[in-house]
Amino acid sequence: MDIEAQKRQAAAVAVEWVRPGMRLGLGTGSTAKHFVELLAERVRSGLQVVGVPTSEATRQQAEQLGVPLTTLDDTPELDMTVDGADEIGPDLTLIKGGGGALLREKIVAAASGRMVVIADESKWVPVLGRFPLPIEVMPFGFRATKRAVEAVCGAPAALRQGKNGHAFVTDGGHWILDARLQRIADPKSLSERLFSIPGVVEHGLFIGMAQAAILAGPAGARVVERS
Predict the structure, then answer these.
(1) pLDDT digit string (tens) for 122-175?
(2) Residues assigned a catalytic role
(3) Nearest to 179 by CA among 128, 119, 140, 138
(4) With bands split at pLDDT 50, 70 and 90, how would you rate the model's confidence at 227?
């Protein structure tokens, strides 16, 4: 079973957890894309749900597939968010933001009664940090913010570039620094120190937000729940 098939298997398990009438947060990224596709199949079969997309890309996909959508302004409390992750630690602390939607993803997850992460087994790690940590920053004062971020992280942080060779711009109009830490021994402490930097809008550490992870591998899917 290749990686894409594993991602789809994890998404298929998550779709089984959806109940009629649910208000869903719809994640962003390659694994979440499978979830939206499978959810749309159930919607076409009569399932009544409504979704809040975490990015413009997800909004466009959901609209094209016929998934009913709303906004957090109109529906501020959600039942469940289903999203992917770039890394998942043993306590379900996550690194997210590889797709550039970390700010909206975190807002939607925080408004949800339950956050479920779907991923292939390769995303499960003993210690976070090999995947570069995305840090969303204001363009204004960028160089000063970058220096402060690198001082806090003790590691280089590269400005993410888009396909056009210029700075990648998030849906919120911000830039992203990818910090190459290799190992994050204390995610909570790092989170607090990053938030102390003026110019940092958000970062990709999701601490205490995910209640369950569905991990798919060659031997099938397993569920890990946060104690």
Answers:
(1) 999 999 999 999 999 999 999 999 999 999 999 999 999 998 999 999 999 999
(2) 105
(3) 128
(4) confident
Count the alpha carbons within 13 Å of 67 in the hemisphere toward its beta carbon: 27
Is 80 exceeded by the pLDDT of residue 87? yes
| Residues 59/115, Cβ–Cβ less than 8 Å | no
Quote the CA–CA distance of 71 and 83 in Å, as a whole number: 17
- Are 179 and 153 in contact by the 8 Å Cβ rule? The answer is yes
Phi-psi map region of 72: left, alpha, beta (phi>0 left; psi -120 to 50 alpha): alpha
- Across 98-211, the runs of DSSP E, i.e. the strands, are 115-120, 133-137, 157-159, 175-179, 200-203, 205-206
Pick from 107, 35, 113: nearest CA to 67:
35
At the top level of CATH, the class of 3-124+207-225 is alpha beta
Give the model's pLDDT for residue 88: 98
Compute the distance between CA of residue 93 and CA of residue 144 in angstroms, rounded to an integer: 29
Please tell me the class of the 133-202 domain: alpha beta
CA-to-CA distance for 56 and 25, rounded, in angstroms?
A: 13
pLDDT at residue 1 greater than cutoff 80: no
97-107 pLDDT, tens digit each: 999 999 999 99
Q: What value does the mean pLDDT of the chain take? A: 97
CA 8/CA 76 separation, integer angstroms: 28
* Sequence ranges of the domains in the chain: 3-124+207-225, 133-202
Q: Cβ contacts of residue 105 below 8 Å, gap of 6+? A: 27, 28, 54, 55, 83, 96, 97, 206
